[in-house]
Design goal:
The protein is mostly beta strands. It is 10% helix and 37% strand. The chain folds into 2 domains: 125 residues, no CATH class; 34 residues, no CATH class.
Length: 164
């Protein structure tokens, strides 16, 4: 592991489960780590997936509690809901949590998973102005127009212009 993964000779656990006594003994911890995407496979609905994850954490005791400030960032591959093109997006989220100082373990992986789950958009788009696919021929309209006739979306569209 790189030296970024240590604080006062404390190795960041791969599963992000920190022993409370270690945090209290050190008077707090500041650490960061790169995490394996395998821990986050079930977060997004396939084919969307997380491809890179990094986390930085700061723990500090505050009486009977330990406050945890975290930042999780990385990359995800998502399929556009309009044109079906796969694209890579960055994410960067923060969280703040308190845990009891009497707990044996503080499970940060759970916090990271919850934070990432909240970043899943209702609709992923490759660009905000994605034109999607033609409903008749299936051509990606971001690549140019197709030769299909415009669809009549309303049964009353044929009356347009008849009554002036």
């Amino acid at each position: 592991m790189s030296s970024d993964n240590f604080y006062q000779e404390y190795e960041v656990p791969e599963d992000l489960r920190f022993r409370t006594q270690d945090i209290l003994r050190n008077g707090g911890l500041n650490c960061s780590a790169k995490l394996a995407p395998k821990y986050f496979e079930a977060i997004f609905t396939p084919p969307n997936k997380i491809t890179e994850v990094q986390v930085s954490l700061e723990f500090w005791p505050t009486g009977k509690e330990i406050t945890v400030r975290g930042r999780v960032w990385g990359k995800r591959t998502v399929r556009c809901d309009r044109c079906l093109k796969e694209t890579t997006q960055n994410f960067d989220e923060n969280f703040l949590e308190t845990a009891s100082a009497s707990a044996e373990i503080i499970d940060i992986m759970l916090l990271v998973r919850q934070t990432l789950a909240l970043t899943e958009d209702i609709q992923f788009l490759c660009t905000p102005d994605c034109k999607g696919l033609c409903s008749q021929c299936g051509k990606n309209l971001n690549e140019g127009p197709c030769n299909c006739k415009p669809e009549i979306l309303s049964p009353f569209a044929v009356l347009k212009g008849k009554f002036k």
